[in-house]
Design goal:
Largest sheet: 7 strands, mixed
Number of helices: 12
Distance between the termini: 47 Å
Length: 406
Amino acid sequence: MPPIPCTHDIKDAEIVVYNIALPSCCILEWPDEKVLTIAPSRFPCQPECPVAKMKVAIFSSQDYDKKFLTLANEAQAPEYRHSLTFLEARLDGITATLAEHHDVICAFVNDEVSSAVLDKCKEQNIGLIALRSAGCNNVDLAYLAKKELSLVHVPAYSPEAVAEHALALLLTLSRKIHKIYNRVRDGNFSLEGVTPGFVLHGKTVGVLGTGKIGECFIRIMMGLGCDVLGYDVRENPALQALQQQCRGDGKGSFEYKPLDEVLQASDIISLHLPLLPKTKGLINHDSLTKMKKGVVIINTSRGGLVDSKAVIDSLKKKHIGGIGLDTYEEEEEFFYRNLSQDVVGDDQLIRLMTFPNVIITPHQGFYTCEALTAIAESTIQSITEYARGTEPGPSIIYKGKVIKHM
């Protein structure tokens, strides 16, 4: 068979071709030199099939997404370089129509992968949802499996990036960096009127969630000489081994404890849990009353872990000493958008920002060159594996079959 042109649109039975040789195993009929008929279910037919290009609709895209995803895509062999469409819109049941004529939807943490979106995917012959994140609480997993679609994520892009950001929030609060920074910019070099900070060495730190990010944060805090208490429904084997080695000699220690003991004993509590029905609103009126007066809370995980109203009440009573938030329960309406000339229409968020002992960052824990590179490379690689007809390594659901329970 001579080289024939191909536009690679597997949604149509007839496709016009460009300058590459389509494997004969894909072809059902080739009536003339310009048009051929293929079996979509056999395209691509095998891993070595040279036609493995996908049209990818990338939602909630920022300039850094364009840069790092384009670099990762261009690093592929020419036959595996996908067509990337960058869309600023957040994915929902209405904007999903923007993905028409694409093969893949690439979504981020605040995109809505609901049943309405998945119905549109099925209507538009979109087979893969590629998440540029680890968590999938924004995805209707059961419905996605029912529709026999595929879902991939980025399970571990840079746990150190998020763990170090948690430390940055903690140090900012503990040493009043945000307040001093603003005073110095105004020419005020005095320390009068600024409450002294506190040393982390020797403090008891509670870590809720001891997966990859939680483990990184634990090791950082141990390195600062903290005694760390961990809680998780599934204990980390590496940390279990670490627990046996630690005896607490002022050089840092680690020990697993029940949740209530962690809440009661900790000077600092850092959240590294996924957002699940049983973890939603974990930091609430009841759990806050169990904590020490002056406790510092850090959340770089998911906003829904924290009941904002309960936190505001506790701040007003001066029970919480400080809180650093890289996530917020209603963040999808605000984060990753420039609202400096608009009114932020969320009373709770506005109220939180008025407290001098509250630091809020716009879900930027991942925002490092290393993490962005890892996210882009993993996402593009997963799309390529799917395009070649193989199950991508970081699959959660593959063609309706649940691969990994989240």
